[in-house]
Amino acid sequence: MVEEKEGGGSGGVMASDATDAFDAANAEHPYLKIIILGDSAVGKSKLFDRFHLNDYKEYRYSTYALTLYRHKVDLDGQERLIHFWDTAGQEIFNSMHPSYYFQAHACIMVFDVLRKVTYKNLTMWHEELCQHRPDIPVLLVANKIDANPKASQMKFNMASKYNMKLYYCSASDGTNVVKVFKDAIVAAHEYKKKTTDFMDAVMEELQLMDEDGDA
């Protein structure tokens, strides 16, 4: 199932499996696609809930395959559709389907400052990301600092090692949440304008052809 969220409402689009879910979401052709990676229960979905709905929920159930968040923003004087993709529980398999990474323009990687293993596992997630989208900008989020304020004084070597911007965040009290998502949109937009990815260029042309055919 693809769980789509836009504004304050939500709906569902049924798919037979994860591949169908990812393909259906990619077919919408958003202007920007930003993926969110990290272990289960690090707070990925709650971060977006705080950003988009400004309504933190203490508990949230994962849905099968994918949670797709749709967000509209003004870029260069035009209203643009942004897709934020959340793993929705698929991360328990320690690997994502290639379609999850397809044509992503930026990535937000999240770990839980209360669980060291979620930080260690970012190496695995980063390696898989680089197999599919090695050049996109990556933003690193140290989440749940409200439960461990001292974590905001800690240095995390992964950020400097891979040239990632590090954000100390809390979905609970909202610390830096809006900033990280807005910065991700800006980074994805800049990447899209500068990219020379051949497949991205081909897909852009095909999308324009489809739009012309529908006109």
Would you write up a description of this structure?
The chain has 215 residues and is an alpha/beta fold. The chain has one domain (2-214): Rossmann fold, CATH 3.40.50.300. It is built from eight helices and eight strands; from the N terminus they run E-E-H-E-H-E-E-H-E-H-H-E-H-E-H-H. The chain has helices spanning 18-26, 44-53, 98-101, 116-120, 122-132, 157-161, 177-194, 198-214; strands spanning 2-6, 9-13, 32-37, 66-75, 78-86, 106-112, 138-143, 165-168. An eight-stranded mixed beta sheet has the order 2-1-4-5-3-6-7-8, with helices on both faces. Strand 4 and strand 5 form a beta hairpin. The two termini are 30 Å apart. Mean pLDDT is 80; it is low at 7-16 and 56-63.
Concise description?
It is built from eight helices and eight strands. The protein is an alpha/beta fold.
- Give average pLDDT, whole number: 80
| Total number of helices | 8
Structural class: alpha/beta
CATH topology: Rossmann fold
Shape: globular
Structural domain tally: 1
Specify the CATH class: Alpha Beta
What is the helix content? Answer: 25-40%
Proportion of beta-strand residues: 15-25%
Measure the end-to-end span. 30 Å
CATH-defined superfamily: P-loop containing nucleotide triphosphate hydrolases
Taking strands numbered 1, 2, ... along the chain, how are they ordered across the largest sheet? 2-1-4-5-3-6-7-8
Main sheet record: 8 strands, mixed
Instruction: Give the SSE string.
Output: EEHEHEEHEHHEHEHH
Gross CATH architecture: 3-Layer(aba) Sandwich
Total beta-strand segments:
8
Give unreliable regions as ranges: 7-16, 56-63
What radius of gyration results from the CA coordinates?
17 Å
